[in-house]
Amino acid sequence: MSRDDGSGILLAIYRRLLAAYGPQGWWPGDSHFEMIAGAILTQAAAWRNVERALTNLRAAGIDDWPSVYRIGTDTLAEIVRPSGYYNVKARKLQAFAAHVCDKYGGNLDALLAVDTETLRRELLGIYGIGPETADDILVYAAGRPSFVIDAYTIRIMRRIGLTPAGRDDYDGWQAMFHAGVPHDALVHNEYHALLDWHHKAACTKNVPQCAGCCLRDICATGRGTDLPGLSGTDLPGLTG
Ligand code: SF4
Q: Which positions ≥6 away from 192 have C-beta within 8 Å?
């Protein structure tokens, strides 16, 4: 079933989550440097392990990209070891650092000031930066609208009964959200954070906790039934 037709269900889900959980205040981190380093380190890693790696970076006095560029790769790998895949992640951090230093003289703000389309293309050209990490950086460091798609988002949406009308890949899912919610960085920021929290709080990986879920009446899984043929405006509680 696909119900991504702009009928308002994506916006309704956002409002329900915001009412249930409140603003999330993302991204966790003290600076744009930490935000971006965290986005790279969190690939295939639990956030608590990323926090340990970020703490190590702070303790080592590494708080900007020129510092990452200068330090030896083996030393950096030891520092970020708690995040897992530390040799690869050290190389990814240094690839990002090389881009900032070689093209922007080490000035991260200059990179983040590039127009959105060019910035996304540049980010995707850096080793270790895929679409999810690029969109994390666009939304949470550069303050640009570019909806972040991750496994949590897809799991929740599939359970509700929503899939893209087009391609079932990153671009297809992102296009669905771009069509269904305002093209606004603050909305994209908050919505992604709310979905992440909802996954932790209720729509967990193995057994979703549907009793008491704020989305239950509009969720195919929560209702224990599919909802074929309904549009968003047919669903209860989707106005306003
Ligand atoms: S009702 Fe259940 S499956 Fe649906 S969003 Fe809520 S927790 Fe997830």
A: 26, 139, 147, 148, 150, 153
Interval 203-223 mean pLDDT: 95
From 216, 226, 227, 235, mutation site for ligand 1 pocket: most ligand atoms within 8 A of C-beta:
216
In the chain, where does the domain assigned CATH 1.10.1670.10 lie?
Answer: 9-24+149-234
Nearest to 30 by CA among 42, 22, 19, 38: 38
DSSP summary character for residue 165: S
Supply the CATH classification number for the domain 9-24+149-234: 1.10.1670.10
87-105: per-residue pLDDT in tens?
999 999 999 999 999 999 9
| Most ligand 1 atoms within 8 A of CB, residue of 155, 156, 194, 225 to mutate | 156
Q: What is the reported pTM?
A: 0.91
CATH of domain 32-140: 1.10.340.30
User: Ligand 1 pocket, 209 CB below 6 A?
Assistant: yes
Within the chain, all domains assigned CATH 1.10.340.30 are found at 32-140
Task: Give 207 Cα–ligand 1 centroid separation in angstroms.
Answer: 9
- Report how far ligand 1's centroid is from the alpha carbon of 195 (Å): 11
Q: Tell me the two tokens of residue 220.
A: 């195919």
CA of 35 to the centre of ligand 1 (A): 29
Which tokens go with 115? 């127009």
